[in-house]
Amino acid sequence: MTEPKMNGAESLVHTLLASDVDVCFTNPGTSEMHFVAALDHIPGMRSVLALQEGVATGAADGYYRMAGKPASTLLHLGPGLANGLSNLHNAKKAGSGVVNIIGEHASTHIELDAPLTSDIEGIARPVSHWVRTSPSAATVGKDAAEAVQAAMVAPGQIVSLILPSDTAWNEGGLAQPKLEIPAPEPFDADMLAQAAEALDGPESLLLLGGTALTESNLEVAGRIAAKTGCKLLSEWSNARLERGAGRVAINRVPYPIDAALKVLEPFKRIVLIGARAPIGFFAYPGKPAILTRDGADIMTLAGAGDDLSGALSALCGAADATQTPPAHVAKADLPERPTGPISLDTLAALIARAIPEDGIVVDESVTTGRAFFPVTKGAPRHTWLNNCGGSIGYGMPAAIGAAIACPDRKVMALTGDGSAMYTVQSLWTMARENLDITVLIFANRSYQILRGELTNVGVGNPGPRAIDMLSLDRPALQWVPMATSMGVEACRVSTCEDLEAALETGLSTPSPYLIEIDL
Amino acid sequence: MTEPKMNGAESLVHTLLASDVDVCFTNPGTSEMHFVAALDHIPGMRSVLALQEGVATGAADGYYRMAGKPASTLLHLGPGLANGLSNLHNAKKAGSGVVNIIGEHASTHIELDAPLTSDIEGIARPVSHWVRTSPSAATVGKDAAEAVQAAMVAPGQIVSLILPSDTAWNEGGLAQPKLEIPAPEPFDADMLAQAAEALDGPESLLLLGGTALTESNLEVAGRIAAKTGCKLLSEWSNARLERGAGRVAINRVPYPIDAALKVLEPFKRIVLIGARAPIGFFAYPGKPAILTRDGADIMTLAGAGDDLSGALSALCGAADATQTPPAHVAKADLPERPTGPISLDTLAALIARAIPEDGIVVDESVTTGRAFFPVTKGAPRHTWLNNCGGSIGYGMPAAIGAAIACPDRKVMALTGDGSAMYTVQSLWTMARENLDITVLIFANRSYQILRGELTNVGVGNPGPRAIDMLSLDRPALQWVPMATSMGVEACRVSTCEDLEAALETGLSTPSPYLIEIDL
């Protein structure tokens, strides 16, 4: 068979499609025009335009979590990549695979130091596991296939493929077939007997993270807990957690440091599967950074990139629990219908009652959402996504990616107002793609979390200038016109009755809908 | 005199104030809470909150250009810096001095690899001239003083000072006095006679950039042009250009490559003062990257960091032009009052008629604005700021910085809709600080520049998928509710009469005002 003649950009698109990468979150510029042209005449790639690259990279994160395969991004030179950097940080911490395609000046143009010239590899490296600049049109296909393979290294990796524009426009491109998906690393079998022995009663903890939190893996963990009496917890932030009625419910290590210390205090023996030993999100003067008790025996049976299902199965066998019915299976259980003004508790109850079967909840609710988790335990089965990198502005973009990965599932994006503003351009992409997302904005008009953090770091009595730097109420953001301006229908509510009706509206229509909740 | 006991954060604030840095564009997080506390109880620093860090860094760029001294930014860890990176790229290319203060985890916490941990120095380096992590509370003051000094190296530098949170909260801070402002490097005196000789008639060009574009320097250049018959041009993008009636007018090297080649073709001898030899913004297949004619004799009398006033004065002396009246002095000359529908020409005329005396025009008008420059030549004297790094989203943030630097001057921000969306959060900060900015949104609902660039790179006949990736009309952005949602009054116009009235309204009130111009 004779390959048709193609340029580097065309070989890129053909190779990505052959490698099963068929979504591209993009904001292209001049140096990417040949890719735009290739995407134009080669069918098969869904190109999703973002009005700021943080939306594109955050969407790629959410997409990977739900699709289990990477999307590509198409970014304009160093600054386009830079705009997407903080959500790539979040994606990296979540173990999401993302294939960044970053345009570069033509090779001969770089040394001229044009206005848009920058050290793209240098910008990419801090958030990437894999960085490569393709040297010629002939290598673009091979580099793209290897990039996708690298992105699929468990649990998922950030790859940044930099393509000088002459490698795109020159002829001689060679499309490549898909490369083998790398298997996860084996778990630490030498640790197995010791781990099984360690899980013995309520002073022992099985701490799970990453893909240990699938429905089937959680069921295995539930059997182990039932048999051994150990406790189960997940990390505070989870890339993807399956939960709801009929599934093994798991609590998270709390975010606030004092609460985390208290929850972890009892455990003398901790087995880690896909989780890391608990540490503080931040350091605080006079408080420990290691959250477990002094002398706790912490065993890593499997790290994030290892075979977590294998580790759980083996542990279950070693604990002789394979026939034990799982503990902690959540019963279908919804809170009473609340009425009147909205409080954090009534809000949690309404969300629990609204979560649809097989819904996806993208959670960037920060302080407002701390009460949501226990109350939603008995809601219909659903998937819960956290921000794993702590950089705010992940929620609405991740909801875009999740909705595109799962067009038949409804997405609820729970977000604080401060977080939502970071990537507010997301609303336009939701409207453009007509995504089935209901956005809940928790409008407390403040970086509420920082008020607590001021106290935590020892600033007990902040004055007006400090308070002002944490306040979003001067002027108050108005989310209904904000959403309207970008083509998203919206409403504002301040009572339980209105919120219930708004959730019904948002979740019953297939278009995006935004609800500003006045807190 | 006994120094009062202070922590590192307090020593930072005292040192910045002593170094004449009294504005801080910020979005702080937990690791910066001690700085927030210090800013709270130490008076003198104007803290300006931004809802996304691109606004903060872009504002610092605009501030430096108009104040001639750096502002500080206060950014939350690597991701906060990352969000501000593309506007730091623009600031770097503009030769603006910016003092970034970036919080970091406490020294002992970094090795734990918490969710927000990242390689901050690695993220900072590609956009910074100077990067340092302060090791202790005792060194913060000294490092801050040296950071400000480094930022003032001509024409201005990006400095990134990283402060682990324990260096902020520990006692032992030592406030430092202001260090000497470094003098610019001398110009190349050996080149002087040759340069003076080269400027002889219309085949010779004096190409200016950077601080060669002040009113007094332009006057000197005008004398040289009058005496020698050389032509004057500036670079396409200028950090700050003084212009308007009574000043020596200077044209820019055009952006579109064919136009640039044509304008530069006649010149056999080119003398550079603060400018670089003209190159293409991008490379295009089959077109040259060097825009000057083959064999042109290009002489650098002074680079961006050199003594540009000295170079111009010396050149003027060597050309025996000190008593020659300057050429190209712009006469007060306004275009006729246009009526009817808005075209690019009538738009330019209305802007020329609206520019107030001593107004500041922040220009990110991209394609729409290419006609503005000649028509505004005879407007009342004003200052014109370009985007020097090519990363869009610079305009509204830079307008914030300019307005804060010059509270008695009116600011017009001219911006395309695609560009404005990048840092749309700017509107909130304009409202919060009640800045005297009139924003003109050129709503062509497209990345119009890229349609031209598709053709330039050889893609003559784009199909619907390509067009769609460059279009912002699905859905159409609505700027009036957008502005309203962030507390900025706004209107939408589609006729000359309405635009004239809107400009009158916007420029006569001291609050921010947004005009969506339907193109």
CATH fold-level topology of the largest domain in chain A: Rossmann fold
Uncertain runs of chain A with pLDDT below 50, 5 residues or more? Answer: none
Q: Number of helical segments of chain A?
A: 22
Structural class of chain A: alpha/beta
- Looking at CATH, the homologous superfamily of the largest domain in chain A is Thiamin diphosphate (ThDP)-binding fold, Pyr/PP domains
Protein chain pair with the most extensive contact, residues per chain:
A-B, 99 and 99 residues
Helical percentage of chain A: 25-40%
Q: Calculate the terminal CA-CA distance of chain A, rounded to whole Å.
A: 65 Å
* Shape annotation of chain A: globular
Question: Using DSSP, what is the number of strands of chain A?
Answer: 18
Gyration radius of chain A (Cα, Å) is 24 Å
Topology:
Two copies of one chain form a homodimer.
Chain A: H1 8-18, E1 23-27, H2 33-41, E2 46-49, H3 53-67, E3 72-75, H4 77-83, H5 85-94, E4 98-104, H6 107-110, H7 120-124, E5 130-133, H8 137-151, E6 158-164, H9 165-169, H10 192-198, E7 204-208, H11 215-228, E8 231-234, E9 241-243, E10 251-252, H12 257-264, E11 269-273, E12 297-302, H13 308-318, H14 344-354, E13 359-364, H15 372-375, E14 382-386, H16 395-405, E15 411-416, H17 417-422, H18 426-432, E16 437-443, H19 448-456, H20 464-469, H21 479-485, E17 489-493, H22 496-508, E18 513-518
Parallel strand pairs in A: 1-2, 1-3, 3-4, 4-6, 5-6, 7-8, 7-11, 8-10, 11-12, 13-14, 13-15, 15-16, 16-18, 17-18
Antiparallel strand pairs in A: 9-14
Helix pairs in contact in A: 1-2, 1-8, 3-5, 3-16, 10-13, 11-13, 14-22
